[in-house]
Amino acid sequence: MPAPRTVLLTGAAGGLGTLMRGLLPAYGYDLRLLDVRPIEGEPDAITADLADKKALREAVRGVDAVVHLAGISLEASFDKILRANIEGTYNLYEAAREEGVGRVVFASSNHAVGFTPRPVGDDPLIAVDAPHRPDTFYGLSKSFGEDLAQFYWDKHGIETVSVRIGSCFLEPSSVRMLSVWMSPGDGARLFHAALTAPAVGHTVVYGSSANTRLWWDLSSARALGYEPRDDSEQYADKLVAEQGELDPANPDHAHLGGHFCTNPPVWPY
Ligand code: NAI
Ligand code: 15L
């Protein structure tokens, strides 16, 4: 596959989309932006819902690749997750198939494997082939998205890198995030590697910085050419002083998904 230049960025109005809008053009990409919400200062952005198949088909026409961030990014009712994340991601892949787009970078999440016990002490890092153990309907939609990506590769030859993102924000805001944080700069480095690595088929990677307290194995991301430069440890003294170290007896601290496993933000559904 030739190096992609024109890239559709879905979810471009969101937190990660805003960060990537700022960082990815430096790698030479010409970004086409899409979100269900208008984007201030971006008059050419496409305002469209993932439910709008015609708009999606026009949005992907002529692009070399898609970075798919759009969707509900936290727990919500199954009906909402179904529409935005499950049907919406299917609609995006169908549009890509119809328009001959060869590669997708899919924003999966650590919550696809959220019920995996977190490593403690000398436990090995969590491998990328850990079975899906979604911690929410949200995490379930990311497990589905990864399977959908595998299906579109096997059946239709569309390549995907599914990035199980940890927490990509300007700074980590909890002791858990010291293990799963991905700095925005490392996020852009990882998305760039996912867009340009040759012959990825469907590859699943964890998305985080080179954190001292890292929980998962980054080797499949490094195999794409990703070289993380940041480490959350610079924030550790402050966060640990405020919140204390993770407590193995605290159910909120027992799994990769943290409080998503124990206290969904939305309940009952
Ligand atoms: P966000 O909630 O800030 O942004 C999501 C964007 O998607 C919003 O601008 C929203 O308007 C748009 N959107 C939602 N439903 C849509 C629909 N039906 N059609 C078109 N656009 C729609 O979330 P954030 O943090 O920017 O995350 C981006 C992606 O990365 C999400 O898929 C999220 O699940 C994933 N992710 C993010 C992590 C993070 O640390 N920020 C961690 C793990 C995964
Ligand atoms: C996610 O998947 C969410 O989209 C993000 O907002 C964070 O909550 C992140 O996971 C996390 O696990 O910290």
UniProtKB/TrEMBL annotation:
Start and end residues of each NAD-dependent epimerase/dehydratase domain: 7-168
Keyword NAD on entry: yes
Keywords associated with the record: NAD, Oxidoreductase
Pfam families named among the record's database cross-references: Epimerase
Top-level taxon of the source organism: Bacteria
Family in the record: Belongs to the NAD(P)-dependent epimerase/dehydratase family.
Protein name: NAD(P)-dependent oxidoreductase
Organism: Streptomyces durmitorensis
